[in-house]
Amino acid sequence: MHQTVLLQEAVDALVTAPSGIYVDGTFGRGGHSRAVLASLDADGRLLATDKDPVARDVAESLAAEDPRFSFYHGSFADLPQVMRERGIEAVDGILLDLGVSSPQLDEAERGFSFQHDGPLDMRMDTSRGETAAEWLAHARQEDIAEVLKEYGEERFARRIAAAIVERREERPITTTGDLAKLVSEANPKWEKHKHPATRAFQAIRIKVNRELEDLRDLLAVALDLLRPGGRLVVISFHSLEDRIVKRYMRDMARGEQLPPGVPVLDSDLNRRMKLVGKALRASDAEVGSNVRARSAIMRVAEKLP
User: How many Å apart are CA 106 and CA 20, to the nearest integer?
Assistant: First the structure.
């Protein structure tokens, strides 16, 4: 069963005006969206997006129940175009709950997890794009190694990439079990309490779904999408995502960085956002009931007038 992480904390940070317009950029199975709708009045509106076709089916049912809710099947990076098409000039808040959801991990046929043997797919949107198996079948060894190192922070990226290329020359790598076994055998030093294929699976999933590119694309336009006083709330589950979000919010809150000693008024620094509170982690109680919450970290920033 899917449990939405930092549910009330995220909604409390996001919704500052009950009659406002908000975006849930990662609908999933609708946990955050339903809580946001419960915080809005009759004039409030919520637009949600998600790449997952199963999420689309759940969202369409919610849209039929609640006229304040609408859905777009695709990436949150498409928000500028989606908002223009729907006549939304700006919103009062954007929520992103990044990464892969528990239902996606639990469904063997989606190919996200090495714990369930299934087709090596890994696409969040199964209606388009290249599967993990298809990418591994043609990618250059150097590119595979770069993805494993950059997105998985894998120490043995070169060694694992070489093993993948050597193996695919014998026969295709088509299942999660096949890839997990191959990576495990190529990994000479297993981390304690961590499956040796964890980093490789994370890296390939991020690559296949353009996860970090989508995040950077959204952050690049977030200020244009938010009203003054509007908030950006982001929940991350690993250091790569959180680093991007932390740096973005820090830079927007600092404003322009000038050489030391330059006489300048604070108003001249062009600060674009202010940080709202400190980075927040799930409580011990939430982690106790949902182990996935252990790595979650939430950051909030508000657009300045």
Answer: 35
Domain for residue 1, yes or no?
no
Same domain flag for 56 and 137: no
Q: Regarding beta strands 21-24 and 91-97, do their DSSP bridges make them parallel or antiparallel, or are they unpaired? A: parallel
Maximum distance among all alpha carbons in the chain?
66
Residues 171 and 147 in one domain: yes
Q: What sign results for the dihedral spanned by CA atoms 27, 31, 33, 36?
A: negative
Tokens, residue 202: 């994370």
Give the confidence band of 292 by pLDDT, cuts at 50, 70, 90.
confident
Q: What is the DSSP letter of 19?
A: T
130 by Cβ neighbours in 10 Å (0-12 / 13-18 / 19+) ranks as middle
* The total number of structural domains that make up the chain: 2
Q: Is residue 94 part of a domain?
A: yes
CA distance linking residue 271 with residue 265, whole number of Å: 12
Look up the pTM and report it: 0.92
Q: What angle do CA 161, 190, 169 make, to 5 degrees?
A: 25
